[in-house]
């Protein structure tokens, strides 16, 4: 009897040791994730066909990953967009439709990408702006907060240079840019990149989920002078020249962007455009440093890399500036996912959404599925085993409860549902949205179908 008991205890001990070893092996074999979100990054990138921008590091990442050419943010404003993609829920579900509320206070107990990965054996770390708010609940999601910080001397250097301010009458309408003689790390994104690069090279016993939130190219556009010197502002693409004769409802435009257009001079218009390009190149340089750190640490082949913009931004498209609009320039975002472990398609031109990121990473890292997520995994699209993962994408704004439905070819915008301010664009034949087809009798059935899809997501239709 004693022999049987000893044998039983021995078997239990061996089984426990085996399970522990198996769990440790599974954790170590899971891929790391680097999750980079850039504030107000639109599709002015080489990988997206812009021939003027200098973005070699992002383009290099794109060359080894999948470029999603028609990705949509769910809300073209920082706070609602980030609350949405970090939770995998639509803005109407999170209840966050402005920059004010915190996701964790609005939705207590909500599962987010870092909390879910942390609960499944990942070390979690972040630097910079990932959520729009930093509060005590958010901090518990991260094992490490890697913000680099800058010294008084660095801030002094960063405060030099030629400054231009376009005064549109309100701090949120204005535009400012400056070209200081300073180092990359004298500014927040560069300091954070330096801190994160050092952390990547430290040995870890578990896989990691690392979120890097670049503050740029959000205004004010302050980056080292050397990035401005990469460009001749007169030779850059000037989008606004396409829209000189455009007539669209004023309610389709953001007030801030319209006010800035009214205040800006022709020279300042070129200067602001130039500053954005310079700032994109600055962010690109930080991406390159992070990828080099990953390579130096020997982790490149076991690390999924994601890069995207939280929302787009207008640089004169539709004679408007900024975001919080439902046109392509604001609602469409760059999205690149590189998975070194699998052969993936180079480009995917069907519609996808940022809420798809959470379920995609869950599947790629072989974590348990979360049924409450409202996005769809993109892994089948990346692997080339699914022609289309969804038929439409949705975006919305708080202003007048506006919304947009986009298919692979069409975009329907209802900028003011109470007054039925509708715009319809054929993006296959009119990618710059110059010809509003809402009054085309041949499109009545299409408009009705897209309206019904909007209703299904809780959007208002008169």
- Please, how many helices? 16
Helix proportion: 25-40%
* The CATH fourth-level homologous superfamily: Alkaline Phosphatase, subunit A
Strand content: 15-25%
Quote the distance from N terminus to C terminus.
Answer: 80 Å
Shape: globular
Task: Report the CATH topology name.
Answer: Alkaline Phosphatase, subunit A
Low-confidence stretches: 15-26
Q: Do you know the CATH architecture?
A: 3-Layer(aba) Sandwich
The Cα radius of gyration reads: 23 Å
Largest sheet: 8 strands, mixed
Q: In CATH's first tier, which class applies?
A: Alpha Beta
Task: Provide the domain count.
Answer: 1
Q: Strand order within the widest sheet?
A: 4-3-7-1-9-12-2-13
- Count of β-strands: 17
Structural class: alpha/beta
Mean pLDDT: 94
